[in-house]
Amino acid sequence: QVHLVESGGGLVQAGGSMRLSCAASGRTLSNYVMAWFRQAPGKAREFLAAIRWSGGNTNYVDSVKGRFTISRDNAKNTLYLQMNSLKPDDTAVYSCAAKVLATMDYAHWGQGTQVTVSS
Question: Could you give the dihedral angle defined by the CA atoms of residues 2, 105, 113 and 17, in that order, rounded to the nearest 10 degrees?
Fold first, then answer.
């Protein structure tokens, strides 16, 4: 079982930056893909970015390319999401998730952290 705990959310002004963290424990992550998702009120959960823990290959949804960066620290077993040029539309609960490489579904989820971007 992979246990995930997010941190780093809060309130930021439009145009500002914020970094989210996701501390992982319970399993060696070398065979996992880690990702960030978000869900705004009244909207479906949205995939943002993913990273292959071993190798660091990344992919992003088009709407955040160039503004958000996903990364990981192997030594700390921590996933990050650096968010720049934030907009009010980025307001949502942000969650990290993990899945075994080559599987379809993200089986492990954090509790989520609220990010609010004021205009």
Answer: 110
